[in-house]
Amino acid sequence: MPMSTSLDLGQGSGEASTLTESDERSLGRAELDQLREKERDILDQLRHIRNVTATRRDQIRASCPTSADLISHLPAEVLLLIIELVLQSPLVGCDPHRHIKRELASLSRRWRNLILDSPSLWNRIRICEPWDVPFVKAHVARSAECPLDVEICTEDWDDCRWGAINDRLTVVIRCRHRWRSLVLKTTEKDLIMSCITFAWWFISFKRLTIMDDGLSGPFRFSPNADWSSVDYLELQTCVDLNCLSKLSGLETLLVRIPHVSSPPTHVAFSLLGLKTLSLSGYTGDLHFFPETLHFPLLDSLSVNVTHSRELMEAIVAPTLRHVCYTPYSCDSDMSSVFGNLSSKFLSVKHLCLCDYTELWQTARNTNAESAQAVSKAFPSVRHVELHVRHVEAFFDTEAACPADGWEHLKVLKIQGLFGDEISALKEWLRRRNLEGKPVLDVILIDIPSIFSDSRRFALYESFRPYCNVVVPLGLDPTSSLSSSDIPWEHLPYSSASQASSTLLADDHSKRRCEFCMGT
Q1: pTM, 2 dp
Q2: pLDDT by residue (tens digit) across 68-90?
Q3: What is the pLDDT of residues 504-517, one digit of tens each?
Q4: How many other CB atoms are found less than 10 A from the CB of residue 220?
Q5: CB environment 310-339: b (16+ within 10 A), e (fewer)
Q6: Confidence (pLDDT) at 273
Q7: Contacts 24+ apart (CB under 8 A), 327-332
């Protein structure tokens, strides 16, 4: 019996063990099935999420402009401003109104409508051979009542084409009351001006520019016309300066006199409202008498003529503040120009002495006598701009230093390729500090050279114990590369973005428009 009982117990234990393993496998399979079911559910949910995400993405993309289409969503005012800026800076030889404006109008219907319906894009009109009569009429019509800027260019037309010029000119003369500015680039300036003023003596435009080689004779202002509306006059031609008194409203006068033979003329006139005057060119046939050019409101004077002394003696300008002098030849002597003028320019606060600009001739350095003459002629200056050629004469401490006469000096700007003469400037600044005088702001504009940025920076740093140095923007003191391609002379007061714009503009100005040059 015990044996039997023992055997039965052993058999019962084996069956229980067998059932437990089976149950575990069943439970494992059931759990695995549940996990697989959850996996399928999760994958279905993920698939659904992906589909919804793709749908939402497509909807968002459909409702937003692509990167290539962003400009089409700009406000019309902003887009118009962009187009105006493009038209104002074309490539060399490009007529933007015949070429660029047409290309922009072909980009889209919106652009085309904007260009056609914007009078400000049609108010600049050229009278020249490529502009036929229908094209001129289209500009007159689409400019609505906007003020017109008219340019008449007939330099390349022969005499037999006068009829074609007149046909185009007639179109714009009919609306001459809308003219804002007039530019004449022609040898037939008197004839064209007669057509403009015929039976209409009132001049409506405010700006007049005349460019000519001067061989066709001096330009004469019609005595019967009313020129009082003209406040800006630029002349690059022969002209009787005595006639300028007729322009009673003139505020800016820029005259470039060509070197052509003409009879001697005595010049004496007054412009009571003139504020800016620039005279350059050959004045050998013009005779100025002392105190005969009266400009009571003149603020800025720029001189680059052959006979500067007579002009300086003739000018009477009690409110003059800015003077820029450029020698006409490499052997010009400033002592003969400014000597004994000590009481004439007491009001001048800003003096700029430029260097002789012709590259094929070398200008001589300024002598001490010239420096003394300049210092005495402009004793009240606060801002002085010099070329490096002037440094040694103005700041030599071995004799009486001409720069000591500038007791009110605050800003000193020097431009050029610095050499040994810079030591004289350092010594003058050091002596000035020892005397307890105010510290100057010194702007050093180094002409591009083989010097690296680091060497330039060391030069500027050597001045810091004696003055407040203004370092050209864009200078990298850690660079060892040459910066000969960077136009430092353009960067004294520019921001970094403006400096980049200057470099881009220089590169842009070298490119030529193949479309317009080929037509």
Answers
A1: 0.74
A2: 566 777 888 998 998 888 888 77
A3: 344 444 555 555 54
A4: 12
A5: bbbbbbbbeebbbbbbbbbeeebbbbebbb
A6: 93
A7: 327/354, 327/355, 327/356, 327/363, 328/304, 329/356, 329/361, 330/356, 330/358, 330/361, 330/362, 330/363, 330/364, 331/364, 332/308, 332/356
